Amino acid sequence: MATPEGRMRSIWYFVGLMLLVAGGLVLAAGLGDLFSPPGRSTVLAETHPAVWWSAVMIVAGGLFLYYNRDSHHDVHG
């Protein structure tokens, strides 16, 4: 995918985008489990790992997007 100036985006931009989207999906599932707990519980269910890990994914994805939002590197030299 090219920017409006015709430059290619870095792969890390898309990694950040995927982490952001996946983190949002995991957060939605984790919040669903938080407000409507499943019938069976796991050993560490009370720590709500889906909420914590989704927050990590969202922050990491946001950082990747922030630092690669407008790459000043010219691909063709």
Map the helices and strands.
Blueprint: H1 11-35, H2 49-67
Helix pairs in contact: 1-2
Q: If you had to describe this structure to a student in words, what would you say it looks like?
A:
This protein is an all-alpha fold. 57% of the residues lie in helices and 0% in strands. It has a domain at 16-67. The mean pLDDT is 87.
Oligomer: single chain
* Average pLDDT score: 87
Number of strands: 0
- Please report the number of helical segments: 2
Residue stretches low in confidence (pLDDT < 50, at least 5 long) are: none
Series of secondary-structure elements, N-terminal to C-terminal: HH
User: What portion of residues belong to β-strands?
Assistant: under 5%
Biggest sheet record: none
Percent of residues in helices: 55-70%
Whole-Å distance between the termini?
18 Å
Using only C-alpha atoms, the radius of gyration works out to 17 Å
Shape: elongated
Quickly give the structural class: mainly alpha
